[in-house]
Amino acid sequence: MKMRIFRPRLFLYLLVVAALVVSMALPGVRAAIRSFLRFYGDWMPWGPIILIGLYVTFTLFMLPGVWLTIASGSLYGIVSGYFVNLGAAILSISISFVIGRYLMRSRIEHLRTRKKRFSRVAKAVEERGILIVFLLRLSPVVPFAPSNYLFSLSRLSFIVYLAVSLAGLLPGNLFYVYVGDVTGSLYGGADSAEVAVWRIALLVIGALATVFVTTFVGIRIKHVLADSSRQPKQPS
């Protein structure tokens, strides 16, 4: 039987870059972003706490938080922005783990049995654990927020699960934070035109590389899930 998995969001990265480039030609958009950056700066030093709180809230309610990752780069730069996002990711993963494993386990297990795609992923995680979690974190085949609850049902210990998740999230999160860093620098007027050109060029190269890696990892995940579906369950 032919395996079908979640449709990968392979072009999300390119769309983000395209939106960035197009918006640079719109004075109204540039002015709005500059106003937002000045407004947000007035909330310092509470800014990182607000951003982390929003990210965790979005994740718990399974809403996309990628724009908050980009915002962390715009507001704090690539280094500080990444660590703000790292703190948000750790909190989100940890709280979702507790909810999924201890507080709402029966409901999530029910959802897993109803959704065949979730069931296939869950079976693969049970059989190959660390490898599947790492690959799925590396590629946006399964959205971040739902996967937090799904992975909480695995047999992995919390420390191992957290470490593998953060390792898999590193490349993608760095890319999004860099998108935000470039956006904040350009809209904030910090860079010259020459610097802006090479930073955008680097951004496009990074986006293309990310799409390539995502495609490769997606193919690998498909093969792993197909192998898991063919293997008989081992007796306990």
Characterise the protein shown here:
80% of the residues lie in helices and 0% in strands. It has helices at 12-23, 27-41, 47-60, 66-103, 105-114, 116-128, 130-138, 144-151, 158-188, 193-230. Helix 3 crosses helix 4 (66-103) and helix 6 packs across helix 7 (130-138).
- Portion in strands: under 5%
Report how far apart the termini are.
Answer: 26 Å
Main sheet properties: none
Helical content band: over 70%
Mean pLDDT score, rounded?
76
Chain-wise SSE layout:
Blueprint: H1 12-23, H2 27-41, H3 47-60, H4 66-103, H5 105-114, H6 116-128, H7 130-138, H8 144-151, H9 158-188, H10 193-230
Helix pairs in contact: 1-10, 3-4, 4-8, 4-9, 5-6, 6-7, 6-10, 7-9, 7-10, 9-10
Briefly say what this structure is.
The chain is about 80% helix and about 0% strand. The protein has ten helices and no strands.
Supply the key terms.
about 240 residues; mainly alpha; 10 helices; disordered N terminus
